[in-house]
Amino acid sequence: xxxxxxxxxxxxxxxxxxxxxxxxxxxxxxxxxxxxxxxxxxxxxxxxxxxxxxxxxxxxxxxxxxxxxxxxxxxxxxxxxxxxxxxxxxxxxxxxxxxxxxxxxxxxxxxxxxxxxxxxxxxxxxxxxxxxxxxxxxxxxxxxxxxxxxxxxxxxxxxxxxxxxxxxxxxxxxxxxxxxxxxxxxxxxxxxxxxxxxxxxxxxxxxxxxxxxxxxxxxxxxxxxxxxxxxxxxxxxxxxxxxxxxxxxxxxxxxxxxxxxxxxxxxxxxxxxxxxxxxxxxxxxxxxxxxxxxxxxxxxxxxxxxxxxxxxxxxxxxxxxxxxxxxxxxxxxxxxxxxxxxxxxxxxxxxxxxxxxxxxxxxxxxxxxxxxxxxxxxx
Length: 379
Prior knowledge:
It is built from 15 helices and 13 strands.
């Protein structure tokens, strides 16, 4: 399949081509190139063939994946016979990097202005509410804002900058990026986004990807655990007493449901935790009440593009979530909640609030401080 560069793509006459995203649903959820349609050759080849057949024959077909490799695997498919087909060099990541290079210095201003105005109610208000309700920010705190390169952690960094501007509480911020072995393109994308948004990041290296590269079972879980340990260690080295992670409201309710359906347990993702291995350190989740749909709306409004996961596994699959769960399991749970919402519009808030309304008198067994208790103990 012939290649077309991002620069050549931008010179094409509008309407003369069709952009086709062949990535899986988990990756597409983190952003698509404007105007693109999708065709899922991996999971729905028949449907993908129909998508191609419906595109007028006089249009160029420009396919893109995450980094520009999977598109070449489709060469020779019958649906492309006789069509003018191209693979976008560098894929989605290449396009994002190319777009960043073309943009001016107003991206930071627009992103900050949108937080203060258009997205103040859906994003900044629940962020501030979580900080106040769960006492996430306290006088004298030195918080390490952990940035993975995704939309959630980048927005979290901007929200911290905004709330610090209000000066209602004296605290310090360190914006921490750990490079566990990113390939060059992924690291540069994170650096470019941070620079464009005015986030002064501190980057440090580790060899986590090399350590988990040969692990066959649950590499994403091990990677997430190791990354958190490195972040705690670096944050403490910088004099911080807290690390902030970018988990949001939807992560919380999905985790609750996944725990029940996949792990046979009732537990939630807590808004803050004391570290068990780093004395005096805490983990906080200030996006706890912010909806993912609003984060996506902020991203799209500001024409921002982020990675789902910046590890080198993204070259061959959609990998892990920030807590180590595979994207397929989380996506499956997300779809289940969306289906339930069709008949019960309150299902999401009910799942969330269920963790605030646990009646111990109706629980057969529970654990507290590592000790298991049975209802028969005091029956």
